[in-house]
Structure formats: C-alpha cells, structure tokens
Amino acid sequence: MRPVRVLVHLNNLALGGAQLNAVDIARTLRDRGHDPVLFAQGVAGPAPLVEVAAGHGLEVVVAGGPDSPHGEVRRRLGRLAAEHGSQLLHAWEVRAARNSYFGPGRYGRLPVVSTFYGIRMLRGLPRHQPLVLGLGALLGDGRAFGHRDVSLIEPPVNTAADAPGQVDGAAFRREHGIADDELLLAIVTRLVPALEKDAGAELTVEAVRRLADPRVRLVVVGTGPSQAALRARAAAVNAELGRQAVLVPGPLADPRPAYQAADIVLGMGGSALRGLAFAKPVVVHGAAGYTAVHEPGPLVEPHASRCMYGFGSGERSPEALAGQLRPLLDDPDRRARLGAWGREWVVGRFSLDSVTTAFEELYARVLDRPAGAAGWLRDLEQMVRYEFTKPAALRLLGR
Q1: For 187-225, what is each residue's pLDDT tens digit?
Q2: What pLDDT sits at residue 338?
Q3: Among 124, 193, 258, 283, whose Cα sits 20 to 30 Å from the Cα of 269?
Q4: Can you tell me the distance from the alpha carbon of 216 to that of 245, in angstroms, rounded to the nearest whole number?
Q5: How far is CA 148 from CA 89, 120, 144, in A?
Q6: In the chain, what is the straight-line distance between the N-terminal and C-terminal CA atoms, in Å?
Q7: What architecture is domain 169-350?
C-alpha cells in the first residue's frame, strides 16, 4: 500500500484499551512507512498515555483542557491536519468522531474513519462515514442504527511485546512481597463503573475472601474513581484473613510485569487478551456478575465476538467465582495447558500485524472513493440533534 498521512484522534489520554490500541496501531503503521500523527484533548491531571506514545517514538499533540469548548479543540484539530498534510482522519470512539465530523471532516473535505470498541452501540456517531466495530455481536446493531459502512476489526494484541519472557515478572513479585510458592491472581483494569470493570475487581476480592487459601494473593493494577472504595474493601478483607491477601498498588505505565508475574489473569476486553498473550489461564469478567474460564469449548466464539466479555444473570456470586478458581489453583498442569492454548489462540486471531493490515486495507478503500459532501450533509441533522442546538451548529458551520 502507498504511504498514507493519517491523523489519529485519540478519545482521551487515559491508559484504556482503545487508546493503547490506537497507539499500537499508529506505531505499526509508522514502522510500515506511513506517517501517523496523534491528537487528543487535554486532561486535568497526569496524561500517562503521552509517555507511552513517546516510548514508541510517537508524539501526541494535546489541545486545550478537559473543559475547553468544542470549537477550540476542533479548530486545533483542523490546523494540525493542515500542518501535517493529513490525507485521512482516524477517530477513536464517539467524542473523537464528533470532533472529526465538525472539524477537518466538515463538508467531506477530509475522509474520516471512526472506530468504536465499546460493548453497546451508541447513537451520535456519523452514519455515512466508515465505522469500525470491535465486536462481531454489534454488527447488526450498527446497521440497525443506520450506519451504511460497517466493518469488523477486532482489537489487537501486540503478541511480540506481550509474550512470555519479555519482561521480568519475578521482579514484580519481589517488589510486592509475593513469594515464589504463592499463587498470584492479577487484574489489570481501569477502576471505573463503566462496563462494570470495578465490579469484576470487587467480586474477585470477595472470592479471595471465600477461598481463604493462604497460598493465594490478588493484585489489582489500575486506577480510577473506584480505587479508594476497592482499597478500603481490600483492607477489610486483609484484616479478616490476617494477611496481605489483596493488593491495590495503583496504575503502571507498563503493566506487562503484572501479567508475567501472574498465575491466573482475570479481566475483560484487551486486558483478558493480554493475559492470554502471556500464556496465562484467564477468567473472563463481564456484566451482571458474569465470570467464566476461557477454555476450549462452546464459549470460545461468544468470548471472541464480544471481545472477551459476557453477560450474567444479575447474581454476583463470589462463591461461583471461587468455584471456578479453585480447580485452576489446585492443578498446575491445567494452568499450563490453558496458558499454551490461549497463547496460540490469541496469536492466530488478534495479532497486531493482522489488525494493522486490516486497517491499511480499509484506509486504501476509503481513499479510493471520490471526495464529496453528500454523506456529510446527510448526517448533519442527526449530529446537530445529539450535540448542538441549531443556532450553535449554524455558527459552527460558518453560516
């Protein structure tokens, strides 16, 4: 494919799955001869994703702050597109898609591709520009919402960097006082109510309490609004068990040592996939109390089509999770078999190289289309309805 100058609009600067996916894909595009530049709206506190991108030799252009007016952010996005000579804009998630639509993509001047890696379709995305979904289960919903060009490109895993032996897991265990003969459960997540990520961590803390197994330790790596409550619950469980069974150390810019150190990984989405890439057995978290061991059998395709997520009955049962964990904790051979199978499975389906190739093919298809404002104008009423009053929209459009 001929080189492409692509402007990548990140949804935010948190160490979330979609943002890390965007950085990994941009780096791989750069290594293949393309010219990506990254853009994001500023945040109030630290922006660790900027450091992650810099570690890959990528610059993130940050505009404004969390409360900056939409128009200011979009004007800066437009100036960056002009300075860069961008041929295509790749918007990650809903806010970035809206900024792109009303910014450099206005009147169809710059083609825009939007990627949405959520688990439930949202309205307010432009319907006449290409939309990439990460879950096969959402393709029907995307079309039902009126999207004309929907593709499935599942979230990538950097199976070269996320691989057994690439980082020092033993050092992570020593740093946190975890003995070689202890069994470590690891969760790497953002501790936020969205997608019930915090609920999965809370459920696992309670499962550790019920296991009451002196060999078992749990580490929850990550931060977010629910961190203080989780730390308080961990302290109560540790006091009850009389030992430091649960650790909540906070975020890591590079969480790979936690995956490498683990005996079992628990989580959802990209975190679960990374656990598999490190050849660890994985217990998948989901909504409404869902937990399941990821193993060969009937759950493989549903987990894949939902990007390692599930939907429970509403009963959040620590006993059921403890029942799933106990056989894994007691059987090192089964852990090894599941780890080897999981590594092979994720490399075959979710490797960064194959996902980047899929995006290259989409870019080529979009750039081969004739430019025009027709599709942009067909979305205008819908986009105004979801974000602006009519007078504000007309001012934004310069009318």
Answers
A1: 999 898 876 888 999 999 999 999 999 999 999 999 999
A2: 98
A3: 124
A4: 7
A5: 18, 18, 10
A6: 39
A7: 3-Layer(aba) Sandwich (3.40)
The class (CATH top level) of 5-156+352-396 is alpha beta
| Identical fold between 5-156+352-396 and 169-350 | yes
Is this model's pTM higher than 0.85 or not? no
The separation between CA 179 and the C-alpha centre of its own chain, rounded to angstroms, equals: 31
Distance CA 276, CA 340 (A): 9
How far apart are the C-alpha atoms of 107 and 396, rounded to whole Å? 12
HSE-CB at 346 with a 13 A cutoff on CA atoms is 33
In the chain the beta strands, taken as DSSP E runs, fall at 5-9, 35-41, 60-63, 88-92, 112-116, 131-133, 150-152, 183-188, 216-221, 246-250, 264-267, 282-285, 291-293
Burial of 349 (0-12, 13-18, 19+ CB in 10 A): middle
Tell me the C-alpha to C-alpha distance, in Å, between residue 378 and each of 125, 148, 246, 365, 373: 13, 12, 53, 21, 9
